[in-house]
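[job 4471] stage=fold_predict status=RUNNING
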Amino acid sequence: MAQRPELDRVDRALLQALSANARASGAALAAEVGVAESTVSLRLRRLQSLGTIRGYHVDVDLAALGVSLQALIAVRLVKHDRSEIDAFRAQAPHLPGVLGVFHMAGADDYLIHVAARDAEELREFVVAYLTGHPAVAHTETNLIFEHVDGDGWNKLVG
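[job 4471] inference complete, writing structure tokens
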């Protein structure tokens, strides 16, 4: 198992500052963290190369795009053959409307977070991509009424 890099006070402060505003300038980050701008630049490059910072992402309001329905679909595989698990895992994140894929322990093998324009599009997704997939034995779709992003991970940085 790969050893995790040690994060010092500056690294942790940068992560906290970026969690509040990932578009902050180097100068703003330097002022908030209390280090030189060149230090911020070096630290950010290091955190990215280590994989601690995996990217910077836009948060799009899907409803503004006409995509107002979201669901969590539990998927149970036919068998736990490594090649079928790997094939499903490789394909699932790239299916139309998929926002996230979770490989889980328990009765279900995967939980897929999907967005769709309406119930018909969601049904078509399940029929076309899941129930017809040779590795899938069972699906259960749960509609999401509301989603609130958590920020509790910030407390783990401290």
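[job 4471] summary: The mean pLDDT is 92.
[job 4471] exit 0
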